[in-house]
Design a protein that fits this description.
By secondary structure, this protein is an alpha+beta fold. 21% of the residues lie in helices and 31% in strands.
Amino acid sequence: MSELSLESSSCSEKGYYIHDRDEWKTFSTAELGSGGCYRLGISAVVPRPVAVITSLNKEHGTVNCAPFSYTGLMSHNPPLVSHGICLEAGGKKKKDTLVNIEENKEWVFNVLTDSYLEEANACSEALPPHISEVEKTKLTTLPSKDCKTPRLAQALVSMECRLEYLNEIKNDAGEHTTTIVTGRIVRYHVHSTVLKANNGVGNRSPVVDLQKLGAVGRAGDITYWPAGEGKAVSMKRP
């Protein structure tokens, strides 16, 4: 059997055929425009981890809090995370989180879980910087150790982050639309109930249990995707 036949056979078992070229639709991002790229992107790149970011407002002393799904772990040596923070009002206004990070050079990445999903989603409301989303949604905080910014008490995993890089992204018209912030994780806070027991490597290399954590990712539209739920598939590294 040829390589193509093998691929076709494998694909047919999954409900599609590699030779059915007419079934594929292609889209030029230039033709889609920013709105089309947004809708297709967030529905296709799924699930995305959600960082519920807490940051300090210097002027008012309030703790701002907002969820961001343009988020990822970039490396472990050094431990770096990145968030894409889009500007508001057609690219004319920076979000409070971005302003706070630029001023303080730090923030806390709180991992979203199903235990506080509704409150975290409510934190996406656009509020004046002197109003704390934490207080409005009745979330609570705990002190961090290396950063002044507090972490969320409801988060089972939190990461204290210090700013490493700011990268301002501009569209084809030269307009600033997004800032990618990259931070170094300086400390993890992990609730003992979500740590795997007897992982074989000891306390120097802790591991989080997916099922116990109940992490929630983001999909298209305003849709959230709980991880685990008995659907985790474990595979061996080739």
